[in-house]
Amino acid sequence: MTSIFHAADANQLLADLPVAERDAFIATCETVQLTFGEVLYQPTQQVTHAYFPIDSFISQIAILVDSRLEVAMAGREGMLGISLVLGVEEAPLLALVQGEGQALRINAANFQRLLLSSPVLHQRLKRYLYVVMNQLANSAACIHFHRIEERLARWLLMTHDRAKTNTLQLTHEFLAMMLGVRRAGITLAAIALQTRGLIRYHRGEIIIIDRQGLIEASCKCYADDCALYSKMLIL
């Protein structure tokens, strides 16, 4: 298992913290293994822990009656449990592990107490909260205005960023659920991206062939999300 010191450096929100803040954080958290399909929170459930992914990533999913739609994603660039920064201990969304791997986990009460003596971390997390708010707003607009092919390209890029591999284990059924569209729409969009030589799809496996081409095929939302994160958090 990754050493806890290396783990703190691997998550971009924790990297380069002042030594005192970094040591205090490490002393109050643990490294855990997250498994694919694991549910970390249910909507309205009490948030008992905050998670800082190392090489895992987590989908945050809105549930409406019998429908599900991914509205945000957290990997090593972010965290899960950002509502704790506001003093809110209720989960707003379903949190589902999409990419298995390790994460740093910290008890909610310890996390909130730690923020009082960690001004740099606290400031970073407030900026990250702003990024997440924009990501949620952009997702709403993207779903309404952009074509499925553009949205699929964006989603694949977001997943690729966090998975750190060109090979993604994804079925059309899973993609349809994540994007909130019919399976037939995903099939047509995937065929279009494959025809353009951007991806290769076979039996639940999507391979990224041309990342730059995928960026060009994506809606502008992807570039806007990356630019905002850099502006707010890469200082």
Write the layout of secondary structure elements.
Blueprint: H1 4-10, H2 19-27, E1 29-34, E2 39-41, E3 49-53, E4 57-64, E5 67-74, E6 94-99, E7 101-107, H3 108-115, H4 119-145, H5 148-163, E8 167-169, H6 172-179, H7 183-195, E9 199-202, E10 205-208, H8 211-217, H9 221-233
Antiparallel strand pairs: 1-7, 2-6, 3-7, 4-5, 4-6, 8-10, 9-10
Entry summary:
The protein contains nine helices and ten strands.
Report on this structure.
It is a single chain. Helix content is 46%, strand content 23%. With 235 residues, the protein is of the alpha+beta class. It starts with a helix and ends with a helix. It has helices at residues 4-10, 19-27, 108-115, 119-145, 148-163, 172-179, 183-195, 211-217, 221-233; strands at 29-34, 39-41, 49-53, 57-64, 67-74, 94-99, 101-107, 167-169, 199-202, 205-208. It folds into 2 domains: 4-118, Jelly Rolls; 147-218, Arc Repressor Mutant, subunit A, CATH 1.10.10.10. It contains 9 helices and 10 strands. Strand 9 and strand 10 (205-208) form a beta hairpin.
In the sheet with the most strands, the strands line up as: 2-6-4-5
**CATH architecture label name of the largest domain:** Sandwich
The proportion of residues in beta strands is 15-25%
On the 0-100 scale, what is the average pLDDT? 91
Helix amount = 40-55%
- CATH topology type of the largest domain: Jelly Rolls
Low-pLDDT ranges: none
Order of helices and strands: HHEEEEEEEHHHEHHEEHH
Q: Assign the CATH superfamily of the largest domain.
A: Jelly Rolls
Question: Biggest sheet: strands, sense, closure?
Answer: 4 strands, antiparallel
Counted beta strands = 10
Number of domains: 2
Radius of gyration: 18 Å
Helix- and strand-based class? alpha+beta
- What is the molecular shape? globular
Any idea of the CATH class of the largest domain?
Mainly Beta
